Sequence to fold (124 residues):
Amino acid sequence: MQQVIRIASTRAFLDTVKLDHAVWKNNVYRLLQSQSFNETVNGHSECRLGQWYYHGDGQSFRHLPSYSSIEAPHQQVHESGRNAMTKAQKGDMQQMVASINAMELASEQVVLQIDRLMGDIVEH
Fold:
């Protein structure tokens, strides 16, 4: 029963994390649209997933093969979003769009890797 509760709790948390990333990206788009380029958006270790991954309960899953596959795309999401803000502030719209595209591609990978991790958690 404890294992079932742990899995359900972890699934709920990871689903929340995926929603958080959609909200974070939406915030980047909102800031770009309103030309609020000086606003700060948090880095990959500061968001809910980053806190869980580096300092929280996520550490208990680091032995699973899919755990480490989250880090690089997650970092890329945040770096690309922040880079888009910097490029927009400089008026480099071509590079801003490239950064947004990189953010979206990395975000797809984050969701995929979170789903893989959840599968590994259930299996183990």
Q: What stands out?
A: The mean pLDDT is 95. The helical segments are 2-33, 48-54, 71-89, 93-123.
